[in-house]
Amino acid sequence: MILEVAILYVKDNLEKQFEIDFLKAGQYISSIKGYKSHSLKKCIEQKNKYILLVDWETIEDHNIGFRTSEAYLKWKALLHHYYDPFPNVEHYETVI
After folding, report:
1. So what's the pLDDT on residue 10?
2. From CA 93, how far away is CA 96, in angstroms rounded?
Protein backbone atom coordinates (compact mmCIF):
# COMPACT_ATOMS: atom_id res chain seq x y z
CA MET A 1 0.00 0.00 0.00
CA ILE A 2 1.20 3.52 -0.86
CA LEU A 3 0.22 6.71 0.93
CA GLU A 4 0.04 9.86 -1.19
CA VAL A 5 0.58 13.03 0.85
CA ALA A 6 0.03 16.59 -0.35
CA ILE A 7 0.10 19.80 1.67
CA LEU A 8 -2.46 22.15 0.13
CA TYR A 9 -2.45 25.92 0.56
CA VAL A 10 -5.78 27.34 -0.54
CA LYS A 11 -6.07 30.96 -1.65
CA ASP A 12 -7.33 33.23 1.11
CA ASN A 13 -11.07 33.35 1.69
CA LEU A 14 -11.77 30.45 -0.66
CA GLU A 15 -11.60 27.74 2.00
CA LYS A 16 -15.34 27.06 2.29
CA GLN A 17 -15.88 26.80 -1.48
CA PHE A 18 -12.77 24.62 -1.76
CA GLU A 19 -14.20 22.21 0.82
CA ILE A 20 -17.51 22.04 -1.07
CA ASP A 21 -15.73 21.37 -4.38
CA PHE A 22 -13.37 18.88 -2.78
CA LEU A 23 -16.34 16.87 -1.57
CA LYS A 24 -17.62 16.76 -5.18
CA ALA A 25 -14.16 15.82 -6.49
CA GLY A 26 -14.08 12.72 -4.30
CA GLN A 27 -16.20 10.87 -6.86
CA TYR A 28 -13.43 11.21 -9.46
CA ILE A 29 -10.50 9.94 -7.44
CA SER A 30 -12.50 7.12 -5.87
CA SER A 31 -13.43 5.75 -9.30
CA ILE A 32 -9.83 4.79 -10.14
CA LYS A 33 -8.49 1.23 -9.98
CA GLY A 34 -6.21 0.83 -7.00
CA TYR A 35 -7.80 3.63 -4.98
CA LYS A 36 -8.39 2.63 -1.35
CA SER A 37 -9.43 5.75 0.56
CA HIS A 38 -8.73 9.44 1.06
CA SER A 39 -9.12 12.12 3.67
CA LEU A 40 -8.69 15.86 3.80
CA LYS A 41 -7.52 17.44 7.04
CA LYS A 42 -7.66 21.15 7.83
CA CYS A 43 -4.90 22.79 9.85
CA ILE A 44 -6.06 24.36 13.10
CA GLU A 45 -3.30 26.97 13.26
CA GLN A 46 -3.47 28.12 9.63
CA LYS A 47 -6.97 28.40 8.16
CA ASN A 48 -5.95 27.98 4.51
CA LYS A 49 -3.67 24.94 4.99
CA TYR A 50 -4.86 21.37 4.41
CA ILE A 51 -3.30 17.94 4.11
CA LEU A 52 -4.57 15.40 1.60
CA LEU A 53 -3.95 11.72 2.36
CA VAL A 54 -4.77 9.08 -0.26
CA ASP A 55 -4.21 5.34 0.08
CA TRP A 56 -3.37 3.53 -3.16
CA GLU A 57 -2.55 -0.09 -3.88
CA THR A 58 0.50 0.96 -5.96
CA ILE A 59 2.25 4.17 -6.92
CA GLU A 60 1.35 3.42 -10.55
CA ASP A 61 -2.34 3.48 -9.65
CA HIS A 62 -1.85 7.13 -8.73
CA ASN A 63 0.82 8.33 -11.18
CA ILE A 64 -0.48 6.48 -14.23
CA GLY A 65 -3.99 5.24 -13.50
CA PHE A 66 -5.29 8.48 -11.99
CA ARG A 67 -3.11 11.16 -13.54
CA THR A 68 -3.70 9.97 -17.12
CA SER A 69 -7.47 9.53 -16.71
CA GLU A 70 -10.53 11.54 -17.66
CA ALA A 71 -11.38 11.57 -13.95
CA TYR A 72 -8.13 13.44 -13.25
CA LEU A 73 -9.03 16.12 -15.78
CA LYS A 74 -12.32 16.68 -13.95
CA TRP A 75 -10.52 16.68 -10.56
CA LYS A 76 -8.00 19.18 -11.90
CA ALA A 77 -10.65 21.52 -13.35
CA LEU A 78 -12.56 21.50 -10.06
CA LEU A 79 -9.64 21.96 -7.65
CA HIS A 80 -6.34 23.16 -9.08
CA HIS A 81 -7.26 26.84 -9.30
CA TYR A 82 -7.57 26.98 -5.49
CA TYR A 83 -3.89 26.26 -4.77
CA ASP A 84 -1.18 28.85 -4.15
CA PRO A 85 1.47 27.60 -4.46
CA PHE A 86 0.77 24.42 -6.36
CA PRO A 87 1.28 21.47 -3.99
CA ASN A 88 4.20 19.09 -3.95
CA VAL A 89 2.94 15.50 -3.85
CA GLU A 90 4.94 12.74 -2.18
CA HIS A 91 4.43 9.00 -1.77
CA TYR A 92 5.20 6.91 1.31
CA GLU A 93 5.34 3.21 2.04
CA THR A 94 5.02 1.59 5.44
CA VAL A 95 8.26 0.25 6.87
CA ILE A 96 7.15 -0.68 10.38
Report:
1. 98
2. 9
